[in-house]
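hi support,

uploading two proteins for the ticket. first:
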Amino acid sequence: MHLVGRGVVTGECKRRDRGLVVTGAALGSQRLFAFLDRDEVVRLAPTSYTHDHAALRELGPLVALNAALEVDLTGQVSAERGGGGRSARSGGRSTSSAARSPPTDAR
C-alpha cells in the first residue's frame, strides 16, 4: 500500500497488465481496504488468473518474495511454522517454479 501510494511500485515495467499491480488476495486493516477500494492501480483477480502458468510466463523473469517466521542460528529458515504451530500453507513456490519451466508440449 505504501509503495504503491508513493509511486515506487507501479507495474509499468511489466509486459502483461502494464501499469497495474495485480493480486489474488488482500489481508490487512481497514486502511488497506479503503486504499484498495479507491486505488485504480491495484487489481484483485481470481487465482485462476494470478497463478496461470502462461500468464506468469508473459511477465518475464520472476522474483519470489517470501517471509521468514523463524531463522535459527545456523541460518535455517521456516516460512510455514512459527511459535510452535503451523501458521501458513504452501503457497506460490510450485506455481512460480512451473511458470519458469517451458511447457511440457514444447518441441
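and the second one:
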Amino acid sequence: MLAGTGNITKVGTGTLIINGTATVSGTTTVSAGTLQVNSPLINSPVVIEAGGTLLGPSMIFPQGVTNNGGIWDKGPNKWWGNGNQNNGGNWSDGAN
C-alpha cells in the first residue's frame, strides 16, 4: 500500500506495478516506461508524459488524468471520476 502526501514518479524503462489501493495525495506522474495500476488511485491526480504509458485493469482516478503519452485500459471499469480528463496522447480501450 502506498500512502502519504508525497508524489509518485515513474521514470526509466520497464514496468512498475501498483497493487492495492494507493491513498497518496500528491501527483502520480509517468515520465517514461509503464505504470501498471491494478487498483484505484484514490487521492492522486495522474499525469502521463510523452514517454510514459499507464496500464491497468481498473482505471479509477477520482482526481483526474492528463494524458500526453498512452493509456491502455484493459478492464471493465472505465470511470475516471470527478477530476479533469485531458487527452493529448493515445488511448487504447480494449479487453486484451
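thanks. also noticed: The mean pLDDT is 78.
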